[in-house]
Amino acid sequence: MIFHLLSRLSAKVPSVVYRAALIMKPQVVFVLGGPGAGKGTQCARIVENYSYTHLSAGDLLRAERSREGSEFGQLIDSYIKDGKIVPVEITINLLRKAMEETMEMDEKKFRFLIDGFPRNEDNLQGWTTVMEGKANVKFVLFFDCTSEVCIDRCLERGKSSGRTDDNRASLEKRIQTYLQSTRPIISLYEKQGKVRTVDASCGVDEVFDNVKAILDKEG
């Protein structure tokens, strides 16, 4: 059933990524870090100063969950509320759709910050299966921050964000999921020399100064 629904989702958008790959493959930076590490804030600043398009896996999932008539809304909602990772087939199709739409509107927009993905080994394997040869992962931008700071930031954000997962019970589950599932992916990329680490416990401006130094060096 889920694969039938995914095929319908994929069919809704022309396969621009695949056609554009003949000219320019999407250039991808994975943005990883715990909940509340500041990934979204820093990605917004990167977009303002560099030619990147920000794609948040979490935002795409939340938007799909809220979209009227979504085949996946209820399923996504149950995973998010439990602090679990949504099935990779859904996430990758949403990311691919977003890249296709972006490149269809402007072929010069082929640089992407993919925020909050890959979150586990299943995500990584799914990406490799679907996107290998169709997109270049340049490096991983890792925002390193303690669990305590992450939780405090999310609780503060929850006062105005309206997000159902910005509460202590969900946060503790999300932190455990991050430590158990995402950190090993970061370690894997570290072994490949593809991780660029930023101390995310600093103030927003100081963090971005460090991010700029990395992006300017990477070109």
UniProtKB/TrEMBL annotation:
GO cellular component: cytoplasm; nucleus
Alphabetic keyword roster: ATP-binding, Cytoplasm, Kinase, Nucleotide-binding, Nucleus, Pyrimidine biosynthesis, Transferase
One family name in Pfam for this protein: ADK
Record: residues binding a ribonucleoside 5'-phosphate: R62, K84, I85, V86, G116, F117, P118, R119, R163, R174
Single GO biological process annotation from the record: 'de novo' pyrimidine nucleobase biosynthetic process
Chain positions covered by the region annotation LID: 156-166
Signal sequence region: none
Annotated binding of CMP, by residue: N123
Catalyzed reactions: GDP + ATP = GTP + ADP; dAMP + dATP = 2 dADP; dAMP + ATP = dADP + ADP; AMP + ATP = 2 ADP
Assigned EC number: 2.7.4.14, 2.7.4.6
Intracellular or extracellular location(s): Cytoplasm; Nucleus
Positions bound to ATP: G36, A37, G38, K39, G40, T41, R157, C202
Main localization (coarse): cytoplasm
A GO molecular-function annotation: nucleoside diphosphate kinase activity
Region (NMPbind), start-end ranges: 56-86
Record-linked InterPro entries: Adenylat/UMP-CMP_kin, Adenylat_kinase_CS, P-loop_NTPase, UMP_CMP_kinase
PROSITE patterns recorded: ADENYLATE_KINASE
Cofactor: Mg(2+)
Domain remark text: Consists of three domains, a large central CORE domain and two small peripheral domains, NMPbind and LID, which undergo movements during catalysis. The LID domain closes over the site of phosphoryl transfer upon ATP binding. Assembling and dissambling the active center during each catalytic cycle provides an effective means to prevent ATP hydrolysis.
Subunit: Monomer.
Family: Belongs to the adenylate kinase family. UMP-CMP kinase subfamily.
Name recorded for this polypeptide: UMP-CMP kinase
Biological source species: Oncorhynchus tshawytscha
